[in-house]
Design brief:
Structural class of chain A: mainly alpha
Oligomer: homotetramer
CATH superfamily of the largest domain in chain A: Winged helix-like DNA-binding domain superfamily/Winged helix DNA-binding domain
Radius of gyration of chain A: 17 Å
Number of strands of chain A: 2
Number of helices of chain A: 5
Strand order of the largest sheet of chain A: 1-2
Number of domains of chain A: 2
DNA sequence: GTGGTCTAGACCACC
DNA sequence: GTGGTCTAGACCACA
């Protein structure tokens, strides 16, 4: 995949409680964990992504910087940001995302009064629907 | 149930990341959804609840106001706030939220390579942890 | 018309900017001006109307008291409130209501950006529709 | 139009019966409806407008917040408030309000025995009075 | 710089 | 008593 060629399938929600820079960070992490971005791939340039998402370039910079601190990307001054993952970190982070997503899901549904048992039933129901459609 | 007779089983945590007014809002919402507060019941007066929770009356006002915007209560100036809920319409929306949240959760975890079976295990694990903490 | 026999076709809107006691006052005035209530007719008892409208009896009392001050009703202690209009006051008030209603209508439509010319057209349009329906 | 570049032609009257925040809300609404503010334009910052109008920032916040609830603007925390209006949907609602207000006005005045012709005369009279006062 | 939360308390009209 | 408006100002995270 050539540098910058894959536009992030990402739309930020400025009204969300989770900060914009965090939304962007998560989306890029997600792209890495799902394999849409691989070791060595270039991220979009800060200016390009800022224009695309209609956010302040400083916000993109913050996202990229934190990704660098977390060890997911490296900056090559003058050349941009590049994905950098090792196998161990990859698996750690994948597991971490999974646990976090589950916790958030759990808190959202319990807040509106559903139980884990109901969640499990619903997950199985949706799985069944997906199967019957897909095959 | 006479107006204001049921003290909210609610303690706010001012240090939490979730705003105080939001904590109050959620607690009252839950009370309505769970049936502890029924259509026509009076909420505690702004001043009374403010004193009880040791927060500023304006903070309570904000909670109540947003509950009104969301359609859970109505204000009668000079008389108080009253629960106003259309249970039928409400349950539809609740169910819809639940299905949507579940679908989003499912798509996120399958995107990074986890299965429904693993999700179910994780949900049960987190439930167990919550139980052992909560008592 | 026997005393109290005609229930006011009146529903108060507690969320309105215009106070409840004022809504009730206006509704009764309207009933007088339109001839639904005539000189000598009895108003509903305070308790009865308070129950019917789900408002505080003091609020009804305030409405009735002000109507008495304005000379539209008289109280007969122990017997209730009775409509009392003389011809002169009737015409004055009828005119006054008309002017006030027009002013309020005008302010509402100009607030959303319509002109007097458009209002006139719309009035004529609705009149035409009513005529074609009515015969 | 660059952000904040258009000073609102707005002076609040703190003594008015209509709340300050409501006055501000209406003025901005009118600016949007009239096209002085277009989709995407930035409102003045809360602090800036508060200083300009000599009111408390919280009062401005309330105006902006309610405009957001009504769907006229969106807040981007840390960035400002931006006009967000779907003109098509808006014009439908505006027209609908106009027709309804006119119908209600018509029913009220015919109820007390006035005609459409008299209403038109009165509207023109009040327009003339407003003109002679305003200009 | 921005919006958002929260406090402490005054003042008002209305129930 | 009640809700509602408004002030003056602190503190925070985010862009």
């Amino acid at each position: 995949m050539s540098p910058g060629s894959r536009p992030l399938e990402l739309a930020v929600d400025p009204k969300s409680a989770v900060p914009v820079y965090e939304q962007i960070k998560r989306a890029i992490k997600m792209d890495i964990l799902s394999g849409h971005l691989s070791d060595g791939d270039a991220l979009m340039s800060i200016r390009e992504l800022a224009t695309k998402l209609q956010v302040n370039p400083n916000t993109i910079l913050k996202s990229y910087y934190q990704l660098e601190v977390d060890g997911f990307v490296v900056s090559r001054p003058g050349a941009g940001y590049y994905v950098r993952v090792d196998r161990k970190k990859f698996h750690q982070e994948r597991r971490h995302s999974f646990v976090r997503e589950t916790a958030e899901y759990l808190s959202r549904i319990t807040e509106i009064g559903y139980s884990v048992q109901e969640a499990i039933s619903e997950l199985e129901r949706q799985l069944e629907i997906a199967r019957s459609k897909g095959g």
